[in-house]
Amino acid sequence: MSETLTDRRTATRRPDLVAWFSGTWLVVLAVLAAAAPLLPLPEHVDLTRSLTAPTLSGPDPASGHLLGTNAFGLDLFARALHGARSSLAIALAAVALGAVVGGALGILAGYLGRTVDTVVGVATNVLLAVPPLILLIALATVLEPNARNVTLALALLTVPTMVRLARANTMAFAQREFVLAARAMGASGWRVMTRELLPNVLLPVLSMAMVLISVLVVAEASLSFLGLGIQPPAPTWGNMIAEGEGRVLEEHPHVVLVPGVFLFLTVFSFNILGEKARKRWDTRSGAR
Amino acid sequence: MAGSGNAHMRAGADRVLSVHDLVVEFPVGRGQRVHAVSGLHLDLVRGETLGILGESGCGKSSAGRAVMQLPPPTSGSVVLEGTELTGSGGRALRRARARMQLIMQDPVSSLNPRRRVADLVAEGLDIRGEREDRRARVDAALRSVGLDPDTVRDRRPHELSGGQCQRVCIARALVLDPALLICDEPVSSLDVSVQAQILNLLEEAKERHGLSMVFVAHDVAVVKNVSDRVMVLYLGKTCEVLPSEGLHVRAAHPYTRLLLDSVPGQENGDAPGERAAELPSPVDPPSGCRFRTRCPWAQERCAREEPQLREVGPGHHVACHLVE
Amino acid sequence: MSEPLLDVEDLRTTFHTPRGDVHAVDGVSLRLEAGRTLGVVGESGSGKSVLGRTVMGLVSSGPGVTVSGRVSLAGQDVHALAPAERRRLWGPRVAMVFQDPMTSLNPVKRVGRHIDEVLRLHLRLGRREARERTVGLLRQVGIPEPERRAGQYPHELSGGMRQRVVIAAALACGPDLLIADEPTTALDVTVQRQILDLVASLSRRSGMAVVLISHDLAAVGGRADRVAVMYGGRLVESAPTSRVFGAPRHPYTGALLASAPRLSAAPHSRLPTIEGRPPDPADPPPGCRFAPRCPRAEAVCRGGAPPLLDLAPVGGHPHEVACRLPLEAESTEVGHGR
């Protein structure tokens, strides 16, 4: 028996409570967010319908406003769930886009090398050289702040990371003899990349995507907080937190705390699960 | 000693493979080049096995891969069943590749870890778009290498032992019904008892499918066991070509003798040994005979003049100034 | 028989894994006198490497591992020592050489420093003295121009030279016992022979005992006084080298010898094989572990573990075999080597 085998086996597996909690939170949040328009929730966006609702009321299940209301009488729980819709949808779409584009570029650069690699390398390095927030602000000032443009801007942010990861994994796997074997059997470059390399590069890219989702949720919130993302009164967690500006936070902390806790728990959960996935499917363990 | 020439090439028609003046060089930066293979000639008759013997760095793997055009050689000609492979482009080359298959040293690494055995074996068929009888042909190939299709079909490589993985690799090669099998150290990562199984399997496959084989290895006893002819390489040059029958008695080249004396259990006290242990750099190989720096009998002439292969017995060619 | 330098008794190394307990070494007893060389031969998964590491004390009881039995090295029970005391054995008493000379040397340390550091740590030598000893050791292991080589980095040396450096570092403190785990597997055949010759001559000169672990019976054969054959974590045969090659008594040893191709055999001769696979270390078969693959096996073999019994004629060197139906003493004459 090889030593590595025994070492790996001696690491005992025990149920990971934190990971379970994270998974549960994400599932519950996703289900509630998806079902939000169908749920009998108080008004979350239309100011004309919240005229009769109490403003800035604290969390009180008895009042029908589970987590209280904001300065316009809109229900915070409803806004948090609807905010999750846009926050998660934007983050997921951006990561998916980044993974597809970055992964494809990374595999191309890693497998073809030479000119392709140089061009892709220079492009990613240029992107990495610009501080992310500056890049986002620059894009937001040029583009109209709507969901599609925010998604595109955030996707651009993930591309360099994805390219690097996919390129490194591709280069590692391209050294392996199964790639040579496929070529010896007459496989074309396209087939080698899609059938031999892609399945092996996919897992590390997906694990990284999990981690990046949490980064993008925060990035999207930051943009919205700065007023460069989704515009109020349409809710996202970022612009909800921004409502706490001025004296509101001191007197009515729940206005900030409610979206803050949603944001924290979600980012935390994606991080925990992403790290777990990454450890499991890292380049090396993908080897056997 | 390690020299050049093509005196060992045979005339005649039924040749599966003939390689002329094969040169493989790799740039290593600063304008320097590794001379992996320098002017190799070889030919292979249908149903014949040629063993290529040598230590690491002798160019035996590079030669095998250059024949496969993976990567194509720096210069030289490779003719497979009458088709010139060097210089032929993508599609024609890919078609020719089905006629020659490669078996590599590390069977686990040569199988994509994310795919199942059935798909791995069918890979060549899929690439060539041969859809009919896919399942039947895969099962037949698995059975012919001694694996039970029902138990292994849905397994992944990491669920199999090294020996079983090598059987899958052989099945994957045989399913395309090739004319030539190039085996690059196919048993050196396997345990002795498994090694015997794979060697027997290769022999059976060769007989059943009428294959010709190039068998590249460092183990003299293994090469002798499977080969009809043995070619000994040193630093990219041919030292000796001889029939494997009686190889351990007839071998005449000092390097072949050194290899034979190094076989465990064959040590003999009066062997002259060698002069220096270091293998010269393939970037700047010695002048004249490349083996002279390690040769116990090297003379001034060996540095000056490169020995040519010449016949010293029936089918036995040696490149050494000192062999009569 | 003199007091043995190494006395291993009923050694068991068990790894606790999610799949169950893996008995990598399962009741091995052996002895080795000073100045002698013992070959330990087995295929992958036989437990030979774990045995070497457990004897050395590199593997010891801890999380996920249980070691039981006794390893006595020059009268000291290796596994009863505190970790700090055990570390003090490594170097002066026992040293190890691993398979891969690429990874056993630190790529950013000069060759000389690998040896320097051992000398200064264990023998408390001064800088200059350590340097002189280092050059001497490098010369002793046959490295040309040792002064220049000591200043080079490992990647500037060939595989064989690197393995010589590893051996020099292992010998630095003059150990009583050298455990070499597949020391030549990663090397070329011509270099393999040089390294094995070197270990043999060093052992002769200094009276150092050697445990030579290998998968290659023939490679060990030329250098060992005795050979112990392992299968499935147990010793199946232990005998003087000439007996193992000339008259193996365990069917596994016989089959292993027969399955290696021989130079004297005609080309294309079919090799006798051992059918089946080695036992799953997490779920070994009952009784003799080789029984499922053994052509001679009968019901009795599947009953209980066969004891290791001495089958040598009275007065001869012990020839221990763990088999209920051993091969005949003058069975198939297998030539030494291939």
TrEMBL record, chain A:
InterPro entries: BP-dependent_transpt_permease, MetI-like, MetI-like_sf. It is found in: Cell membrane. The keyword Transmembrane applies. Residues 84-274 form the ABC transmembrane type-1 domain. Pfam families: BPD_transp_1. PROSITE patterns: ABC_TM1 (PS50928). SUPFAM superfamilies: MetI-like. It comes from the Bacteria. It is a multi-pass membrane protein. The chain crosses the membrane at residues 17-39, 88-112, 119-143, 149-166, 201-230, 255-274. Keywords: Cell membrane, Membrane, Transmembrane, Transmembrane helix, Transport. Belongs to the binding-protein-dependent transport system permease family. This is ABC transporter permease. It comes from Nocardiopsis coralli.
TrEMBL record, chain B:
It comes from Nocardiopsis coralli. PANTHER family: D,D-DIPEPTIDE TRANSPORT ATP-BINDING PROTEIN DDPF-RELATED, TRANSPORT ATP-BINDING PROTEIN. Pfam families: ABC_tran, oligo_HPY. Residues 262-284 are annotated as: Disordered. Keywords: ATP-binding, Nucleotide-binding, Transport. GO terms for molecular function: ATP binding. This is ATP-binding cassette domain-containing protein. SMART domains: AAA. Belongs to the ABC transporter superfamily. NCBIfam families: oligo_HPY (TIGR01727). The keyword ATP-binding applies. Residues 17-260 form the ABC transporter domain.
TrEMBL record, chain C:
Keywords: ATP-binding, Cell membrane, Membrane, Nucleotide-binding, Transport. Residues 6-257 form the ABC transporter domain. One of its GO terms (molecular function) is ATP binding. It is a peripheral membrane protein. Transmembrane segments: none annotated. It is found in: Cell membrane. Its main location: membrane. PROSITE patterns: ABC_TRANSPORTER_1 (PS00211), ABC_TRANSPORTER_2 (PS50893). Belongs to the ABC transporter superfamily. PANTHER family: DIPEPTIDE TRANSPORT ATP-BINDING PROTEIN DPPD (PTHR43297:SF2), OLIGOPEPTIDE TRANSPORT ATP-BINDING PROTEIN APPD (PTHR43297). This is ABC transporter ATP-binding protein.
